[in-house]
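quick q for whoever's on today - can somebody do inverse folding on this one?? i tried earlier but teh output was garbage lol. tokens:
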């Protein structure tokens, strides 16, 4: 029995290619296998037109998803994967998914976070009817993202077939490593406010004014205000709430740090997976990851920093 014969075994492979023919040589047989096995083939890529032409009549039973609209903020993409799989894909059969992220205009923090997302897919789709083939065009792939591929995918696909990745890293270990990457210091003047005194109305007014100062729309400003409030509430529940909030601009985005020197957060996948009735803890931080374009958390014995990235438009 192969991995794809099993009903509840995740198969997560990475395809590194340098030409369209290499992309098609891997993806077309993969999708046809899904069709032959009564699965649900899905393609999320900017090469959907090419795939349609090669599949011919079989393309009518394959779902094609716009990649530019799908691959926005990493945490929102993970939520979309889970929602679509549960509501649309798995009910129709084993999922055969070709996914090719879009790398244009990604900042270094975003690229690091996409590596974390790929690693977390091994947790999110564990013991599910999922065959996932992640495609990477080496001609446009950022170097840092290329370094992550073998560590986040259990199997690699090449011209000679599929093989186990010798570099694959347990998602919990990979996640912890990402959390030790230092955050870049502010590069522009910082607006700051102390959290001491427990003045939520004053904090909301400060964040709203800072967002307006940096040109955020009303919708984005409200999202940031709500996010900061949720982060402060979470830190306070963990025993802190006596730090500060820093706001500045970088790479065309507003950056907001919530700093608490006295609190270490339990950041084991904090806020990445949607809350359930049986696991409501972390619902606030999950909402923060949906509202913001990127959330970075660094926590340890010296305290915690939760960094929120908010662009002028939602990604």
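ok took a stab at it. sequence:
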């Amino acid at each position: 029995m192969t991995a794809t014969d099993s009903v509840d075994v995740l198969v997560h492979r990475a395809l590194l290619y340098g030409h369209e023919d290499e992309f098609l040589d891997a993806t077309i047989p993969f999708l046809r296998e899904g069709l032959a096995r009564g699965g649900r083939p899905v393609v999320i890529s900017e090469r959907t037109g090419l795939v349609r032409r090669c599949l011919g009549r079989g393309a009518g039973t394959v779902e094609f998803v716009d990649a530019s609209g799908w691959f926005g903020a990493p945490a929102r993409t993970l939520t979309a994967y889970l929602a679509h799989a549960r509501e649309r894909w798995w009910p129709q059969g084993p999922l055969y998914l070709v996914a090719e992220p879009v790398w244009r205009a990604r900042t270094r923090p975003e690229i690091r976070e996409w590596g974390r997302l790929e690693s977390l897919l091994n947790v999110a789709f564990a013991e599910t009817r999922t065959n996932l083939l992640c495609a990477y065009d080496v001609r446009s792939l950022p170097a840092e993202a290329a370094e992550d591929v073998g560590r986040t995918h259990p199997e690699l696909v090449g011209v000679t077939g599929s093989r186990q990745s010798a570099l694959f890293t347990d998602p919990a270990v990979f996640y912890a490593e990402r959390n030790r990457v230092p955050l870049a210091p502010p590069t522009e003047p910082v607006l700051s406010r102390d959290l001491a005194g427990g003045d939520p109305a004053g904090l909301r007014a400060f964040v709203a004014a800072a967002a307006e100062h940096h040109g955020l729309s009303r919708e984005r400003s409200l999202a940031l205000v709500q996010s900061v409030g949720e982060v402060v509430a979470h830190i306070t529940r963990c025993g802190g709430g006596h730090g500060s909030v820093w706001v500045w601009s970088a790479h065309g985005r507003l950056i907001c740090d919530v700093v608490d020197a006295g609190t270490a957060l339990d950041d084991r996948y904090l806020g990445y997976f949607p809350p359930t009735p049986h696991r409501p803890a972390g619902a606030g931080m999950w909402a923060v990851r949906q509202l913001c374009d990127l959330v970075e958390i660094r926590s340890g014995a010296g305290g915690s920093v939760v960094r929120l990235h908010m662009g002028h438009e939602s990604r």
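fwiw The domain at 191-310 is CATH 3.30.565.10 (Heat Shock Protein 90). also Residues 218-237 form the longest helix (20 residues). so keep that in mind when u check it
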